[in-house]
Amino acid sequence: MLDNVIYRKAKSMKVSDYFEYKKCEYVYLQLIVTKSNRNTNTEQIASLVNKMFKKTNKYICQASKRLIIEERPKASFYIHITKDKVQFYFIIPKIFQNQFKTKFKEIWKNIEIKEVDNIPIDINSCSKFDLHYKYDDSLSLAVDKRNNDLLNANMSIVDMLEQNESVGIFYNFIPTSDKESNYFKSKTYKNAIARFKNGENLKKSKNYKDYSIVIIKNLIDFINGLLNSFFNTKQNNQLVLNPLKIEISYSTKRKGEKAICKNQTIIFAKSNKKEREIELSNTLANTFKSISDNNELIVTEITKNIDIKRTIINHTTVNKTTIEEDSNFINMPSTEVIKQFDMIEHNKCLELKAPACLENGEVRIGKVKNKENAQEIYFSKDDQIKRLGRVILGSMGSGKSYFMANSLAKDIIKADRGLVDIDYIDKCQVADSIKAIAPKDKIIEINFNDPNQLQAFNYNELTFNEDDDIYYKVNISMQKAEQMQLLLDSINDDTSKLTPRMLRYFYAAATVVYYKNPNASFKEIINIMKSHDNREIIIDKINREGQLLLSDEIDDLRDLDKKNSNGKIENYDSKIDGILDRVAWLKTNLFTKLAFNKKADNNIDFVKALKENKVILIKIPEQYFKSRMIRNVIATFFLNKIWISKQIDSSTHTELFFDEIHQCYNCQLLMQNILVECRKFKLTPTLALHYLDQLTPKCKSSVLASGSSYLLLQGCDVKAFKELSHYFEKDGYTETDLTELDRYNALCLIKNEEKGYSSFICKLPS
């Protein structure tokens, strides 16, 4: 029978088949602050730590036949200090990282959160010291949300550190249940405070001196009782020899009202010598005296290895701190602390995200860094908003011209928009830079110092054909006369006054001349004002119908005739002397004199050129036009030609660059009208200035009312910020953000369809 029995080997069982201990997975987050930082609500982080608490049975679950036990989570805060750098880290359970990130951003509005691999210290290869309460846990450390006293004191260790040395402060926060907090407040705290008020020594570790004090106190209590019995003293008068009662501090009083979030605090010190590590640790530990109150923190060396990922770190004391006491530890440096210790890793400026509608477009602004993210940002591509102006504000050498000539121009040409650059700065480097990147077949170059390229002073875009209706001809002639009157007015000669009567004569002469020949030179207008014979010759060439329609203008011209004593007709020069004086200025420069004399037969038709999206480079180099007034006349002439052309045909989008327009008074007068109407005619002006107050008050008002976008480049005068402060301050930007900009960065205020105006800091394209 036994021979038939089959013996089988017993099957072994693995413990892991039935039990699993699941460790909590942590992420390491580096927090980088800005200068505008506040710590008034950091106790909310300790409160969030407590919200991770779950009852023990919640950490145990069954999956199939396996029993899974999860490790309790915790959160830690670490400050790493070297001579050259101070950094801040949080160690957060991975499953709670979103909640903590949200809370960090709520408390520190402008914090950058960066995920890293680890904290920058090997904790078990350096000296470690445990910071724990000297007295009973019921007594509190000092609590004041209004200051950075502890962190400020901690930072003083920097002066003592040498190269290749580092120290760190590690705060471990352990989730604490409401039940434990309530028990502490209702039992432990009340009993301890009663003993403290009664003068008892609540020191956790007592020495001989402490025990002597206890014996003396007990002796006094005995004598009190004896005397009270002997004299039969009433109970309310029985304190004969009792010492003075001790009052608790404001912070200790509040400890009985706040939730507990248990804490472990460890100091790390790394140096080449053990003695040096001890010295650094003791010095850093002493800085915690800045928050001493009824309680204080003392230091004990940890001689064994520790595991900072454990919920309760081994070989380290647990302190029953309140969330308010923990807020002392969870502090980011304020502006004052960063100014004093500039090695603290921080972002100099407030970093805000640009609206999503600016993430796509044709014309780049640059890269926006927002905390841990980066965006490539463009000017709005909205059909209406993209026609509004731009204003680039910056000091000399800030990169205004480079940004216009390289980044803006490149993108504008790529987008197949027309581009006009009026350049009278130095040697016209902006125009030359644009020329270098533009396709040759798109370039129209007008060197006003080149006799072959300079244009006649004639608005030839306003023209007519010989067979056109007479009314159309007269209308065009009158429009051209009106524009020439504006050009004449741009010759700012303080010694000559243009009376309304003088302007009437000029207007009449220009209308008659242009009716006869729309391409006539400026000189021909002046000639018929100066000479009776010239007037009569041109009037005689006008047909009868034309003379009837221009009778008022002809009468005005004949008003310049006078007879001398011999009965000969002469010219009444005194009636037009202001005009002649101004025209004389044009003859002080060779090239304006040539433009004055030249007919417009070979002038470029700006209407046609802009419709073809040409790149028109108008160069007025200072070395040839040293008079600011002459540069003003030429620039005004071309600006007006562009504006007239866009009013005639606005079928295509044209960009206009104008650097330092404040140098040209009459251009500002014209620009103040252009800015508020440019959207209708698909013209986008880009103005480069030092600050807005360089403009005339009316031109400045037009800029501000036009819906323009603004770029304040690094080195920009703070006046520029003040002029736009009501926009920037609503987003939290201050003058400090402008002054702290890195080179080739800009504080931007950009018009967009999503938010109206959005402000952010941008690195300009290289």
Task: Give a brief rundown of this model.
This protein is α/β, with parallel strands linked by helices. A hairpin with a 3-residue loop joins strand 5 and strand 6 (86-93).
CATH topology of the largest domain: Vanillyl-alcohol Oxidase, Chain A, domain 3
Radius of gyration equals 42 Å
Strand order of the largest sheet: 14-13-25-24-23-15-22-21-16-20-17
- What is the structural class? alpha/beta
Mean pLDDT: 90
* Distance N to C terminus: 95 Å
Q: How is the main sheet built?
A: 11 strands, mixed
Name of the CATH architecture of the largest domain: 3-Layer(aba) Sandwich
Give the overall silhouette. elongated
How many extended strands?
25
Which regions contain 5 or more consecutive residues with pLDDT less than 50?
Answer: 235-242
**So how many helices?**
26
**Range of strand content:** 15-25%
Helix content: 25-40%
Taken together, the total number of domains comes to 3
CATH class of the largest domain: Alpha Beta
